[in-house]
Amino acid sequence: MQPIINSKTQFWRRKPLKFRWGSALIYLILTGWSLTTIYPLFWIVNNSFKVSKDVMNQSFALALDPVFINYTTAFERINIGRSYMNSLIMSGSTVILVLILSGFAGYALSRFNFKGRRLIYSILYATLLIPAFATVVPVYEILIRTSLVNTYGGLIFPQTAGNLTFAILVIAGYMATIAKELEEAAFIDGCNRWQMLIKIFFPVSRPVFASVSIFVFLWSYNDLFSALIFVNKASVRPIVALLSEISSQYGTDFGLMATAVALTVIPVLIVYLFISKFIQKGLTEGAVKG
Predict the structure, then answer these.
(1) Candidates 1.20.1250.20, 3.40.50.700, 1.10.3720.10, 3.40.50.880; correct CATH number of 85-238+267-286?
(2) Deepest in the core among 40, 83, 94, 186, taking most CB within 10 A?
(3) Which PANTHER family match (predicted)?
C-alpha cells in the first residue's frame, strides 16, 4: 500500500537548484558591463554635491556632507532652465516633424508597388553612409540665405532632415508587417486611403512611432556639433551647448560642471526607463516580416 501524499506536500516539494557555471559567468559579465555605465553616472551625481576643491582632491569619496550651491548657481547664474526649454522646443519639434513626414513616407513605401520604389530605398540606404560633417557647409549656407541661423528653425530643420532617413526605413519596415487582411477589411467597410492611414495604420504602428520618437529625441537632444555651429546665440542655446561653455565661463568649477551634466542626463534617463519597453517592441516587430 502506497503512502498518501498530501497536495500541500507536493506543492512545497521542489527540485534542488543546480549551479551552472555558464549562467554565473554570463551574469558576472553583464554585471560588470552595467557598472561601466552606472558608476560614471553615480560619480557625476555624487560630485555635483561637492565644491570644486573637493571634486579635485576627493573625487571618488562619497559626499557625506552634501552642498547645494552648485544647483543654485546652475539655475540663477547660468540660466540652465532657459537652456532646458530651448532643448525641449527644438527636440520636441524635430520629433513631431520626423514622425509626420516619415509616417506618410513609410506608408507609401511599404504598402504601394510603384516604379522607382527600389531606387528610393537605395537612395535612402546610401544617405546613411554620408557623414554629417560633410553636410555642414552647404547646410550652413542655406540657413544663412534663409535667415535661420541662431533661431529655433536653424536647428530643427537640419536635425529633421538628418533623422528622416532612419525614421522612414524603420517605420516602413514595421508597416510592411501589418496583415493585408486588415487593409482589405478596411476597404470593404468603406474606408479610403486617408481614413485607413489615420484610423488603422497609425494606431497599429504606435510601438514603432514610440521607438522612433525616443531615438530622434535623444539624438537631437545630444547633438552638440550642430548646436555649436547653427545656434550659438544665448537666447536659443540648447543645454548641450551650455555645457561646453561652463568651463570657459567659470574657470575650473568642476562641481558646477558635474551639476550641469547631472541635470542634463538624469531627466532623459528617467523618461527612458519609463518608455524603454516600446523600443524593444517597436524595433523587433518591425524587423521581422510577419
Answers:
(1) 1.10.3720.10
(2) 94
(3) ABC TRANSPORTER PERMEASE PROTEIN MG189-RELATED-RELATED, SN-GLYCEROL-3-PHOSPHATE TRANSPORT SYSTEM PERMEASE PROTEIN UGPE
CA–CA separation, 193 vs 195, rounded Å?
6
Give the whole-angstrom CA distance, residue 230 versus residue 132.
13
Q: What is the pTM of this model?
A: 0.76
The three three-digit cell numbers of residue 37, written as one number: 555605465
- Give me the phi and psi of 215, to 5 degrees please: -65, -45
**DSSP string covering 112-159, please?**
---TTHHHHHHHHHHHTTS-GGGGHHHHHHHHHHTT-TTSSHHHHHHH
Cα dist from 164 to 97, 192, 201, 202, 263, whole Å: 9, 26, 19, 17, 28
Per domain, the residue ranges of the chain are 21-67, 85-238+267-286
**Residue 290 and residue 179 in contact, taking contact as beta carbons nearer than 8 Å:** yes
